[in-house]
Amino acid sequence: MRQGVCFRAFLRQRSWAVAGFVGALFLLFVPLFVSIAWSWRAEAQALTADLSDHLIRITAGFTGANVVLFGATEGVGDIILVVTGPETHVTLRRKGQVAGIWLNQDQVAFDRIPSFYYVASSQPVDEIMKRGLRQLHQVGLDFLRLKATEKDLDPEYVKNFRTALIDLKQEQGLYHGEHGKVTFLGQHLFRSELRFPSNVPPGKYGIKIYLLKDGDVVSASTTPLEIGKHGVGADIFQFAHQHAALYGLVAIILALFAGWTADSIFNRKA
User: How far is residue 91's CA from residue 201's CA, in Å, rounded to a whole number?
Assistant: First the structure.
């Protein structure tokens, strides 16, 4: 009798061990199965995109440039693209009157903000992308993460400067939120014309393309773009930044020589 009880206890322990082993295998392989399923889904919703030109040259007399983005998708949905320029540092100052004199009284510095920002879409963004995803991917000017370098500032105070920063960038033609248009050529081919103004900052740009369906991102693609200065102006710019002291000395000498030459010409005419 005791042997039977011990045998049943042994079977019960063994069954628990088997159940634990199966559970461990389940926890081990479920993430793998999910990953495979997601990759199959991503493959089914493949998205490819490219640019007509991956390099914009800023030369003398540069008045801006247009670049065509074109792409294709195997799935049916909407397209949103976001163009961001190289990160930069900006300090905004607000002036006030002190004893009848206008002086800088307040300032807020923003670090690592995009120098250029542009959004284009096949439909209004707020209709095809969920708010949480817009915040996650920073789609739209209201969702840009423009943080002040100082941590202890009043949020409302920073918000006012943030609004002023966006307004300034828009006046300069460097920030465009949800103004661009993505056009579908049939169900799977799309294109969009990107406009860069004459004052566009040089550097490396990133263009992120999202394929959306029912408000969710089902696929994404990234393509690079470089904007750089070329020609004599670029050589002078590079020399001035690499040899600032020597550039300043040469500029002073040239200014003195130009002044002496002009004075000599006027004295001869007199």
Answer: 17
Q: What is the pLDDT of residues 106-153, one digit of tens each?
A: 889 999 999 999 999 999 999 999 999 999 999 999 999 998 998 888
- pLDDT value at position 33? 44
Answer yes or no: pTM beyond 0.85.
no
User: To which residue do tokens 């930069």 refer?
Assistant: 88
